[in-house]
Amino acid sequence: MITIKNLHASIDGKEILKGLNLEVKAGEVHAIMGPNGAGKSTLASVLAGREEYEITEGEVNFDGTDLLELSPEDRAREGLFLAFQYPIEIPGVSNVNFLRTALNEIREYKGQEAISAKDFMALVREKSAIVELDAKLASRSVNEGFSGGEKKRNEIFQMAMLAPKLAILDETDSGLDIDALRIVASGVNKLKSPENATIVITHYQRLLDYIVPDFVHVLYNGKIVKSGTKELALELEEKGYDWIKAEVDKH
Amino acid sequence: MSTTLSINKLAKFTTALTPTSLTFSQDVIKDALAQLSSSEFPTTRNEQWKYTRVGKIAAIEPQVKTEYTRKLPKYSIAENAVTFVFENGIFRSDLSYGEVINGVTIKPLTACTAAELVSVGKLAKIEGDVFNSMNSAYASDGIYIHIASNTIVQKKIQIIQILTGNQTVANTRNYLFCDKFSKAEIIFGAFSHDATNSFNNVVTEILVEENADLTIDKIQYEEAGNYTIATENVQQAKDSTFTINTLTLNGTIVRNNLTINVAGTNCTTNLNGAYLLKENQHVDNHTVVDHLTPHCNSNELYKGVIDDKATAVFNGKVFVRKDAQKINAFQSNGNVLLSDNASVNSKPELEIYADDVKCSHGSTTGQLDEEAVFYLRARGLSEKSARHLMVSAFIGDVLEKIESEDVLAFTQKILQERFGWEF
Ligand SMILES: Nc1ncnc2c1ncn2[C@@H]1O[C@H](COP(=O)(O)OP(=O)(O)OP(=O)(O)O)[C@@H](O)[C@H]1O
Ligand SMILES: [Mg+2]
User: Fold this and answer.
1) Which of B148, B304, B334, B400 could join B103 via S-S bond, C-beta 3.0 to 4.6 A?
2) Model ipTM?
């Protein structure tokens, strides 16, 4: 699905990603954990195509295409989705209106016909139900006046609408109470299939009780420094990152 | 030693114009001529014209004709409206159409008696105002609308002005009177056809009597290369409502002078404006709301989107006079700059002499939120669609205040054609 090789990225002359390698196959769930400032959101932003970052080295192959050559919109159209750590508010731009435009531009890109208004509304109803997002919220201005939890649910709602091949969830669990966490996680699980894959960035092992990962990686100082199975998340929860930092810094 | 020969450009300019033959009060014409003889075109040293240069207008060598017969394509904003068309300030009866509306007198000023025009010039200030003066002394024609008391006008009315030719100067004068308890909505559309380097100087006086309710939709869509100065002087009597929606969609220099005297208690005044500029356009909105009486509300919302090398000016004054207690006056101007070379000068001004009032004003100028653009693109929208969505959300605040579906549809059509924006 996605193969990241020796990725180096910097911003304002400061190198943040320092030779990152990661491979995610279809049907898999990968968790990325790591201390604050390690570069987790940077990785997500670079993959989504944020233009402020300079890629100095490395390559990213996304289902056969050179991801780094694509504009942000074409990455989305190829099936990449990023649930933002801090979803932005966009006053005056209606959630459903922009999603309809997005969906249709994606369909056009794939040579498919535009979705009818009726089918679109049916899709909105179906997908907003998955994350228990109030239909009223679905049609309001993007995230405007939404609570923290509603914003995160809106991200998953949009993900459900766009049905991506690869979803990257950047701390979608942060700031959620246990009920919201369950809703969001079950939303993600319902959308899971053998053809798509998910990368969840999180600080909390509790999310991984709901979204069970096939692999857990530790990102530290711009690199994946340790990979393992879900037991690694438990170990990190218990012992923190110091032992890993010590291990890395020793070399 | 050298002598500088100072040639009065204004005098040279007005010599080429045809003195008005309208039956205004002779005093108005006399005052206007006196004002002109002691004036010159304003420069940017004049505070009122600080950001708007009229040099291009002053440089015109006016070509004035008194009759036009060439067939023109149909310019219209509302279908099935009673339509009066003026070409370069000259009435085109052959292009005008529509049936008689009960209680409404509507005709060109050239068809009016001196008695009907007796109040023309009472609101438009001559002193210190070159363009009002020019208009008062040289107006060729314009629309006269009288709405009788208790008349609720359901029929659509549109006044279409078309500027044609090269170096044409049109002095168009309009007079509107809405008598007590009447209600109407009138569309003014300014267009041009094969016009270059031409200038339309329009002055409109509007009286809104007790309990009357008048809405003006003013759509400015003259081609690039032409200039407009549009002046409205409005007076509201008690319990009246006046709304004006000013939509500036093209034109190289557009200056709007909107002055509203709120001269009765319990009035409502709404001023909405949207200006969408690109290329080398320059659009200047000067507005004055003068609250002379207590217990009134005024709401002013102007928003602009400025691209390329275009420049916008907003100067909004709200006066609340000493006796005008219990006033709610709200004013807001917002601008989005779409290019590094676009610019705006925005100056909201409040002058309050009463103590028991609620007033607010604000002005913002910024770029589109790039974070939001990225968010939308990351969901699959093209950069263009993302920007258009953001722009339409911004300007939508003004458009949603417009009640006329015809005006909205027309505006959306132009924005689509001229900017590729979907709303
Ligand atoms: N514009 C910038 N200029 C310089 N440094 C930046 C800039 N933006 C981010 N950084 C730095 O990049 C590093 C990585 O940030 P990033 O947001 O990717 O971390 P993270 O792993 O997501 O952390 P968290 O767990 O707190 O979300 C941080 O040290 C941050 O300060
Ligand atoms: Mg982060």
Assistant:
1) B148
2) 0.95
